[in-house]
Amino acid sequence: MKEFKVSHLLRYSLLLFFLIPYAIFLFYYKFSIDIDLSELLWALKNTLTQSTLTALIVTALSIPLSQGLILLPERLQTIVKRLLIVPQILPALYSILIAFSVLNPFPMGTMGIVFLFVLIDLGFATLMTYSVTTEKLGNMSVIGEVYSLGRLNFFKKIYFPLLKQDLIVNFFIIFIFCLSSFSIPLIVGGGRGTNLEVLIYEKIFVDQNWSAAFSLCAFQAMAIFFLSFFLLKNKQKDSEPFVAGNYLKSYVGLGVIIGYLGLYLGGYFIGLYKSFFYISFASMYVWDLYDAAIFTGKALAVYLTVNFIILVLWLLDYLNNKKFNLATNLISASTVLVGFTLYLAFPVTREYDLIKMTLAMSILFFPSLFKLFLQKPIEDLRQQILVAEVYGLSKPQIIIEIIFRQISKQMLLWVSFLIVWFISEYAVLKSLGVQTQTLGLVTEGFLSSYRLPLAYLMSFFILIYWVGALAVVSLILRVAYVAYKKLTI
């Protein structure tokens, strides 16, 4: 029998924290066939159509766009890469605002959802395709030119055979993002674009058919986990120095990148500029905005504290086991599943709103943001951590003096997106049955009632709130570090 260790308790406790929704789900679960089959098939058809169409369009377009990216000089390429990821990591409400401004009238239903999914995911898919291209093709393009292979034959005989598996993986990554999306179909789906997430939401809050909602949740959760854990396993990629030949350069792709960024960034700033002409109408909502801002600030303080504690425990677990917790793979949890289970577990009153918000958003956002910003930088410090352990540094010293000090920029990005995702969220809050107005819910209210100028003004206020909150957090961390140094001298 294996000896029990405290480190095992920490490891399993962290994993169980992120599995809370599934534990609650199983506790309450009652299988029921009380589901309208035609309704289920309609939602399933919409979900698969939206996800498949988006993944196909985005994966196909990412090929010429990645070749357009190759044309740029290194410094400009770095800037464009950062801009391309903006639509993916900014909250969905910004993309919805831009889409509503660009397409007037906006096509509600499946086509509108697909348009928004493409707008959000295209830049991210371009970066994924660019990454695998530079890792896998090496100098193949130059060799193809030397042998006068021709662009068409190069793609047919070299490009697609070598990158086929990676492009399929990219397809399924986008597919999963769309499959588990709730915020976009909730706003722009209408009756014609109802997907599984929206159907589950309707079964809970409209029909009060909880057993049917549980069954739908189980179906969707199994589908997402199957795709996440079996089709998207991380594989070690062999890489060699990359040399960009002419076959891998596309001026058309570069033009599409310029158009895409112009549409997204330019669309937002033009819409924001027009909204300032309606600023007098915003004065009618000053006190509502004040109440929402105060409550959002209180909830944000609790949320960030909880996430910082989780991060420290996560790092302690990493130092104990020399590998990250399995929960780092839980990046595709269903919004409605998490929201619904916590909605059942806590009373639907204002007093419990803060607890539900903190739990739900920590479970949904921590693993994905950790994987995006912190996992690789921390893994790169493995050798330094080993040396520090040899010299007898304690785990808190290693975390503060080695890890936190050297990944301070990445931590700032991590905190930054924890903040902006939290303060602008509305879909999670609706699935939680939150009774208190937040900045995200106020903005969603304006969006749902098509008061776009007011929604744009709210989005700008959220950006200001984001910067202010980040400045306060940075100051607190600096003061905390100075106090730590004084105590340890």
List the helices and strands and how they pair.
Layout: H1 6-18, H2 20-28, H3 37-70, H4 74-89, H5 92-102, H6 110-136, H7 140-146, H8 151-179, H9 183-188, H10 196-205, H11 210-231, H12 251-275, H13 279-282, H14 286-321, H15 335-345, H16 353-379, H17 382-390, H18 395-406, H19 408-424, H20 427-432, H21 439-448, H22 452-488
Question: How is this structure best described in words?
Answer:
- The chain is mainly α.
- It has 2 domains: 1-30 and 276-489, no CATH class; 31-249, MetI-like fold.
- The chain has helices at residues 6-18, 20-28, 37-70, 74-89, 92-102, 110-136, 140-146, 151-179, 183-188, 196-205, 210-231, 251-275, 279-282, 286-321, 335-345, 353-379, 382-390, 395-406, 408-424, 427-432, 439-448, 452-488.
- It is globular and about 70 Å long.
- The two termini are 44 Å apart.
- The model has no long low-confidence stretch (mean pLDDT 86).
What does this entry show, briefly?
With 489 residues, the chain is mostly helical. It has helices spanning 6-18, 20-28, 37-70, 74-89, 92-102, 110-136, 140-146, 151-179, 183-188, 196-205, 210-231, 251-275, 279-282, 286-321, 335-345, 353-379, 382-390, 395-406, 408-424, 427-432, 439-448, 452-488.
Roughly what is the average pLDDT, rounded to an integer? 86
Helix content: over 70%
Alpha-beta classification: mainly alpha
**Judging from the principal axes of the Cα atoms, what is the shape?**
globular
The main sheet comes to: none
Unreliably modeled segments: none
* β-strand amount: under 5%
Q: What is the CA-based Rg, rounded? A: 24 Å
Record field, number of beta strands? 0
Number of domains: 2
